[in-house]
Amino acid sequence: MFTSVRTTQNALRNKKISVRDVVSHFLTKINEKNKDLNVFLTLNEDESYELAKKYDGLLKENPDQIFEKYPLLGCIVSFKDLFLTKGLRTTAGSKVLDSFIPPYSAKVVDKIKKAGAIIIGKTNCDAWAHGASGENSDFGPTLNPWNKAYVPGGSSSGSAVSVAAGFNHVSFGTDTGGSIRQPANFCGIYGLKPTYGSVSRYGVIAMASSLDTVGHFGNNISDIENVFKISSGVDLCDATLKDEDKKQKDNITVGIPKQYFEKGVDQVVSDKVHEAIKIFEKNNYKFKEVNLPNTKHAISVYYIIQPAEVCSNLGRYDGIRFGNPRNSFGAEAKRRIILGNFVLSSGYYDAYYKKATQVRTLIINELDKAFDEVDLLIAPVSPSQPFKLGEKVNDPLKMYLSDVLTVPANIAGIPGLSVPFGIHNGLSLGFQLMGPRFSEKLIFKMARDFESFTNYKFEPPKF
Amino acid sequence: MIHLTKSDILHLAKLSGLTLTEKEVKELSYDLSSVITFFEELKETNTKNILPTSQTTGLENITRADKIDTNQTLSLEDVMYNANDNKNNLFKVPIILKK
């Protein structure tokens, strides 16, 4: 009844439950279990119950049309603590903003609320979205609900776990280099990184502006699709937005980029993607190997461009107008600010920053060419299954290298979806689908087909 | 191997508006030297006549009417609310010029 938005809405329609029951179901679970996993930094209990009361009244008055006006009525969501929420503390996972109360909300927060969703709280994340494990949060790491000795992935760590642990239906995160797809993969759920420029970033604390995207987590493809429909679209606040929809087609040809299966990718991870490919093939999907040799440069390109943009975006935190002074930055933020200023500094600019932006062009051209031949790409999300807490935390380069399969989509601005598929040694596995810019619908179709081919049903972890 | 020295790090910290402890300088010098050395692999790519990419939308000159939108305007109270130190609706800033 509480698993997906659809089942909850059906139960509301049939008067089996009230919106108050939905809110109380999730809040009870959070209050009981959040301390085991460290998912929420701030809860929004009072407003959640107030809105539940309002919607229960509206449901009584006008049960038939209410879902047209509020398509997300009964949907309980959370936001990564990078999204400004008016009147509700927003920290970015950093001590710099540990008591910051935003005076306005992000556009996407307003949009989701207007559609009837109830925001239950703000989730933990790597500070400023810098990280692939959740361990860089200044408020302590979030733990993986499948096995608490392991990381849940990052940087949208709390958001991924909130969905996997059944603390809410859907959670919003940001993906600059894999921060939605990788934690979704590590937690056994869906995670969508949309096309750059499809969802407004106004009011979302900026990390690297040419790479940042807003997306979300869910435990089934229909929730992912419906929430994307509502969250995307042009506003007059984020100038990078574009309304575009790629043409639909029935016979999809999928590319297998061989560089995504090469050394460094664990056997169990690539075997699972090939198992998925076999299932698709049995159901008349066509596959074709594609060659993307510049993929190997993606990490260097990303870790030059991204810190360059980070050091500029974090320049605004002066502790004067809001927040604490700059000495409150944690180790990873300092590392990226310094690295960014290095690659931009005179004498090094051409060799690093300019070179990286040129190789970025090569990576984009190569992907464009691949999409002339195939409609979508299938690949692993992360080279390994979740790693243990503390395993990579003292070796930044090693941590950065674990982003190798997710950063190309950000570099090129294309969409990617993490699809869960199976469990090995008690930890989750899956694959990602990528497509040309604005090909979300095609990606959703392929993921929906996979749900029906495999009779997918979300099996939550026991923790 | 490219090596960022202690004075390189201190110079960058100054540009970054950060103060670092002795231990942080040492760690950053070690960590960032290995990261930057890794970047050397980019040298093998041929980027002659390749234009740099700074954004992927293809959009240009997105503008809106130059009109005040009162829905997007914050009250003075809201603007000052998060400031650590303010007086008469002014932000108090550290002294940067000395007599």
Structure at a glance:
Chain B: This is Aspartyl/glutamyl-tRNA(Asn/Gln) amidotransferase subunit C. The complex is a heterodimer of chains A (463) and B (99). By secondary structure, chain A is of the alpha/beta class.
Number of helices of chain B: 3
What's the number of extended β-strand segments of chain B?
A: 2
Structural class of chain B: mainly alpha
Order of helices and strands of chain A: HHEHHEHEHEHEEHEHEHHHEHHEEH
Instruction: Name the average pLDDT of chain A.
Output: 97
Reading the helices and strands of chain B in chain order gives HHHEE
C-alpha-based Rg of chain A, rounded? 21 Å
Query: Uncertain spans of chain A, ≥5 residues at pLDDT below 50?
Result: none
Across the major sheet of chain B, the strand order is 1-2
Largest interface: A-B, 58 and 50 residues
CATH architecture of chain A: Alpha-Beta Complex
Separation of the first and last Cα atoms of chain B: 46 Å
For the sheet with most strands of chain A, the description reads: 11 strands, mixed
Describe the structure.
Chain A: Keywords: ATP-binding, Ligase, Nucleotide-binding, Protein biosynthesis, Transferase. Chain A: Belongs to the amidase family. GatA subfamily. Chain A: Heterotrimer of A, B and C subunits. Chain A: It catalyses: L-glutamyl-tRNA(Gln) + L-glutamine + ATP + H2O = L-glutaminyl-tRNA(Gln) + L-glutamate + ADP + phosphate + H(+). The complex is a heterodimer of chains A (463) and B (99). Chain A is an alpha/beta fold. Chain A has one domain: Amidase signature (AS) enzymes. Helices cover 39% and strands 13% of the residues of chain A. In chain A, strand 2, helix 5 and strand 3 form a beta-alpha-beta unit. In chain A, helix 10 packs across helix 12. Chain A starts with a helix and ends in a 10-residue tail after the last helix. The model of chain A has no long low-confidence stretch (mean pLDDT 97). By secondary structure, chain B is mainly alpha-helical. Chain B has a domain of 38 residues: Histone, subunit A (Orthogonal Bundle), CATH 1.10.20. Chain B is 34% helix and 4% strand. Chain B has 3 helices and 2 strands. A two-stranded antiparallel sheet of chain B has the order 1-2. In chain B, a hairpin with a 2-residue loop joins strand 1 and strand 2. In chain B, helix 1 crosses helix 2. Chain B starts with 5 loop residues before the first helix and ends in an 8-residue tail after the last strand. The chains are: A alpha/beta (463), B mainly alpha (99).
